[in-house]
Amino acid sequence: MAKKIRIGIVGFGNLGRGVKRALERNPDMELTCIFTRRPEQVKKEVEDVRVLPIDGCLLVDVAILCGGSKVDIPLHGPAFIRWSNTVDSFDTHAEILNYFQKMDFLAKKFNRVAIISAGWDPGIFSLERVLGEAFLPVSKQYTFWGKGVSQGHSDAARKVKGVLDARQYTLPIKEAIEQVRRGLTPDFAKGEMHERVVYVVPEEGADLKRIEEEIKTMPNYYADYRAKVIFISEQEMERDHSAFPHKGLVLTSGETGNDNRQILEYKCQLTSNPEFTASVLVACARATCRMRERLYKGAFTLLDFPLGLLSPDSGNDLKRRMI
Q1: Residue 132 in domain
Q2: 49-96 residue pLDDT tens
Q3: Which residues pair with residue 256 across a beta bridge?
């Protein structure tokens, strides 16, 4: 029997719990340990897995980084790549290239593989955009998210001083989607494609006006959108916003030949955003080990390595069944 891939989960929030569930469905992997800022609390929740503090050290094949993109992953990526291959879902789009270059330098220095920005966007949607543009070079592309909960934007709102909890819903503007589906190719501003609604549980006595202003003006997250901040109680958050659904579309509208309009559409509809993202990260963990076996080193996105490495099946099996 082949040796199982040893996985360490870094951060044990909704995404970390999703990774644990995903590993249970992948028999070629095993959860070795969980690294967390809340070791004593997590030990009570997960009794059958070793739990270590976030700065602990234990040999694993792949560390799956499950913290937020605003603060956690930029710290955890460089720290864990020193002694483990890593996978993450870093999704601050404006900072991805800088983060990639930093992780590429460190991964090559320590002979590791780091797969970054893996998930459905960035990640799967990134692939769809590349395919659409390659197949239809005379085209425009549009990405619509929602209606659904954004983990990254929710985490960013939670980092604002005075916020106990936050949940951000991305709402696509339906009229914009229909314009593209009709074959039109308008030039949208970001605020013409989406709205953002943030439900916030404030600390007692917090300055609500300041919290609202900090969220609405946050660069890379809210500043370019019509954002609405709604303050609610902890009980309302638990009752009305405990699920994490999401949806998304990538549309490429282009022309071929004699002005023939071609429209490509890729859609995902997720009951649990963190559990689906976790499943993508687990597949990428498998790919990192196969890449190291082939002497790859450095940082990679889903655009940068053969997709067959994500599957537990061999290349010949995939050709037989999928092509």
Answers
A1: yes
A2: 999 999 888 889 999 999 989 899 999 999 999 999 999 999 998 999
A3: 260
CB atoms within 10 A of CB 239: 10
Amino acid at 164: L
Question: Is the same domain home to 180 and 259?
Answer: yes
Query: How far apart (Å, rounded) are the C-alpha atoms in residues 209 and 78?
Result: 36
Cis peptide before 159, with omega less than 30 degrees from 0? no
Report yes or no on 294 lying in a domain.
yes
The DSSP bridge partners found for residue 260 are 256
3-state secondary structure (DSSP) of residue 20? helix
- Looking at 255, 271, 287, the residue that finishes a domain is 271
Q: Which domain holds residue 22?
A: 5-121+274-316
How far apart (Å, rounded) are the C-alpha atoms in residues 120 and 270?
Answer: 10
- What is the tens place of the pLDDT at every residue in 103-130? 999 999 999 999 999 999 999 999 999 9
Residue 323 lies in a domain: no
Q: Rounded to an integer, what distance in angstroms lies between the CA atom of residue 245 and that of residue 194?
A: 17
Residue 321 lies in a domain: no
* Per-residue tokens: 263: 């429209």
Q: For the chain, how many structural domains are there in total?
A: 2
Cα 24 to Cα 222: distance, rounded to the nearest angstrom:
36
* Tokens linked to 157: 């709102």
**CATH number of the domain within which 253 lies:** 3.30.360.10
Residue 318 pLDDT greater than 60, yes or no: yes
Is residue 135 domain-shared with residue 200, that is, in the same domain? yes
Instruction: Identify the H or E element spanning 263.
Output: strand 260-270
- Do both 67 and 203 map to the same domain? no
Is the CB of residue 66 less than 8 Å from the CB of residue 9? yes
Residue 266 has phi, psi (to 5 degrees) of -120, 135
Please give the Cα distance from 76 to 86 (Å, whole number). 10
Task: Find out whether 249 and 266 touch, Cβ atoms under 8 Å.
Answer: yes
What dihedral angle (degrees, nearest 10) is formed by the CA atoms of 81, 84, 89, 91?
A: 0
Rounded to two decimals, the pTM is 0.89
